[in-house]
Amino acid sequence: MDEPRDLAQHLLRFSPDALIVIDADGHIRFANATVTALFGYEPEQLVGKPLDTLIPERLRGRHGSHLIAYMSTPGSREMGARIAELFARRADGTEFAAGIRLAPFQLDGKLFVAAAIRDNTERQQINEALVSAREEADRANRAKSRFLATASHDLRQPIQTIRLLNAAM
Q1: How many CB atoms lie within 10 A of CB 97?
Q2: CA distance 130 to 72
Q3: pTM, whole model, 2 decimals?
Q4: Which of 10, 54, 71, 118 counts the most CB atoms within 10 A of its CB?
Q5: CA torsion through residues 130, 136, 140, 143, sign
Q6: pLDDT by residue (tens digit) across 62-119?
């Protein structure tokens, strides 16, 4: 029994993130058990399939050019970081906001890319709620400023009138 090897295999199979490995042609060569919970596919259903299987149809055209560009200069990075929100497609056709980290590696002189994928739907909803709350706070702040400006003006008018009357006397 090779404990480090067994641990590594269990880590790959049962990682909290869905893990897939694709080849240079964009075909899935490995999928761990977590893909079932995230995508609704059994790992064996994905092996050999094109990566497009997991890409929403509306994004497949753009993704193809991104894949070609990435494969020409591969590097470890977060996919789409700060550029655009990413989405993935489940077996039932539904989409979810995805966070994807890429890590290229070579095996027997061939290029492969490992991708760790997680569902970012909850994070996206929290961010949207924060943006909405900030916009509401900004609106309330502007309304408060308008109210104070109006109240200040309305309070100064009688005081100014009293000053004028006082000066006239």
Answers
A1: 17
A2: 38
A3: 0.69
A4: 54
A5: positive
A6: 888 888 888 888 988 887 656 668 899 999 999 999 999 999 999 999 999 999 999 9
Q: Length of the chain, please? A: 169
Q: In which residue are the tokens 């104070």 written? A: 148
Q: Residue 38: name the closest of 125, 119, 95 by CA.
A: 119
Look at the block and give the residue holding tokens 């880590």: 11
Beta bridge partners of 87: 97
Query: With the C-alpha atoms ordered 52, 55, 61, 64, is the resulting torsion angle positive or negative?
Result: negative
What pairing do the DSSP bridges indicate for beta strands 86-89 and 95-107?
Answer: antiparallel
Cα(43)–Cα(59) distance, integer angstroms: 23
Residue 116 CA, chain-centre distance (Å), reads 13
| Contact yes or no for 51/79 (Cβ under 8 A) | no
